[in-house]
Amino acid sequence: MPLVSMTAMLRKAVKEQYAVGQFNLNNLEFTQAILQTAQEEQAPVMLGLSEPYIPYMGGLNCIAAMVKELIDYYEVTVPVVLHLDHGTSFEVCVKAIHAGFTSVMIDASHYSLADNMALTRKVTEVAHALGVSVEAELGRIGGREDDTYVDEAEAMYAVTSECVMLVQSTGIDALAPALGSVHGNYKGTPRLGFERMSEIQKLTQLPLVLHGGSGLRDEDFQKAIARGTAKINVNTDNQAACTSVVRRILTEQPDIYDPRHYLGPAREAVKESVRAKIRLFGCAGKA
């Protein structure tokens, strides 16, 4: 099945009250694991690529080509979105679109509301003209996202009225309001703003996105989904599952040198991590 945009995928998820997982691409094995598991679970899925991984994985064209070839090779028939996560500029979003990405996130949340709206509108106009969906962010999400760190004390909740203004002025397809989640590992017990989440979704009528899905409690996911969250981003849990297996195998068998003998089992660990989230989010069988 060819790559699709996220718009119809997430609208269906809101209507049927489940969420689609966005699982980040870190290398070939992660890409294989995510696609294989989504197919096995018959679940729609989003492949997220954060900007620092563009050069690490050989550039946007290489990444898009790899995803498309793997979809063909594994005969993947479930809907798959290739999504640029936390794009920092108009230029990188446009480059991703031209490379074949079917969805982009423009993260202008660190700018003023007026500048956020202006940049987001500019990206959305280009993306929609080419059939690509757009996610935007408001407020500041704490924690570490790849090479960027925002102290949790400096994180800011999204303001409901500003979310409405952003949505109405830009025409985006999904909104990621900062409501207490963090990227990476949580330092304490997460406290998400569920009441404001409900307000924002009701007033904007858009699918909401929850960043920082690793480390949240099962009940947090269920509450968020019930309040219009249709996309949940997960990466740290998958990375930890992968690294744990590699570390164990190389410790127990120091003579191993063939990457297949440790990256193969690591890929299986990522598959099980992804599978658990797909089932928890309720999107298994929703392809």
UniProtKB/TrEMBL annotation:
Required cofactor names: Zn(2+)
Listed EC numbers: 4.1.2.13
Source organism superkingdom: Bacteria
Record SUPFAM superfamilies: Aldolase (SSF51569)
Keyword check for Lyase: yes
Annotated keywords: Lyase, Metal-binding, Zinc
InterPro entries attached to this UniProt entry: Aldolase_TIM, Class_II_FBP_aldolase, FBA_II, Fruc_bis_ald_class-2
Annotated GO MF terms: fructose-bisphosphate aldolase activity
Protein name: Class II fructose-1,6-bisphosphate aldolase
Species assigned in the record: Paenibacillus alba
Gene this chain is encoded by: fba
